[in-house]
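Cont'd.
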Amino acid sequence: MKEKLFSGMIPVTRPYFNETEEQILIETIRSGWVAQGPRVKLFEQAIADYVSAPFAIAANSCTSALQISLEVLGVGPGDEVIVPSFTFVASANAVVHRGAKPVFADIDPATYNMNPAGLEALITERTKAIMPVDQVGLPADLDPILKIAKKRNLRVVEDAACALGSEYKGRRIGGISELTCFSFHPRKLITTGEGGIITTDSEELAKAARIIVSHGASVSDLSRHQSAKIVFEEYPVFGYNFRMSDLQAAVGLAQMQKLDEILEKKRFFAERYNQVFSSMEELEPPSEPEGIRGNYQSYLLRILPKAKKSRDEVMNILLEKGIATRRGVMAIHLEPAYRNRFGEIHLPETERAFKETIVLPLYPQMTVAEQDYVIESLKDAITF
Ligand SMILES: *Cc1c(COP(=O)(O)O)cnc(C)c1O
């Protein structure tokens, strides 16, 4: 095996920044408007246009966006929300912070997303909403999920933290479920440092969310400043400060100009991985079902039990070679906070995926040489 070819680690991901972000930040700072203002409006419009949703409400994270979404749907104490366990802990934390109970759905092992087949069995008279998650950017099978929700009179919040730019049956994620939440954390497709957004086609939900995101105030700071007359705000509900700042939105606007390029480059490298790994019986590369197009936010690979090394051993070997990896995705129901409050449950496909999956380096500025080094190192690790 070749010795380490690269100085420093090959990271799992890396933000795709250049002078565009630097320049727009300088302009924003010089404008004097650094809290929520005109750039947040522009960023909201850019996302709404991109996903074909009439409304977008920016927030300081996707976690806040999920919590607000559940709140505007009236989810509260005594309610149950069906959510996958094979997701980042924030999906279920948002439910718990509403005082509601997350009811965990198992996944389809081929897509790692909520399996619609098991969904109806989880519905009780307390069920208020379903939260499908588009795991690592691959859209959940929304048609059957939305159909069940409609039939059983349940609300839907889609956790699309990772899924900006992904498509379900020809439509972009963000314009399909009644509420969709995206993240702009650096691990996602585009980043604002920290940040999130809600998209919706409901004017009523959009209005309610906009009020809660900013202290429950009836009038935004921007519209007060832009008004020719004195405007006093009212506080009809209890809100939070979950606002995105103009500094973050400025970076987001610069990043939106690169989204197509990021999508294209991630797909190029992901398909290169797929090509090599699909011929190896120890590995199961990710796949896209008919009509569903992901964005390869992360490259999630399954290392099957027939490989010579376990997933954890592979991670260690790669680390020694200067290659960063992550375990695939967590299984929330196994975490102490959840076990202690909601008891032990068993989700066979979630637990298997939790043990067997690994996230490999994938970022737009990756080089073919870097990727080849990852591929060769992984091949060596699982066959010797
Ligand atoms: C990253 C992520 C979140 C949290 O997003 P933040 O913007 O960091 O709050 C929620 N759900 C999923 C599925 C995620 O991957």
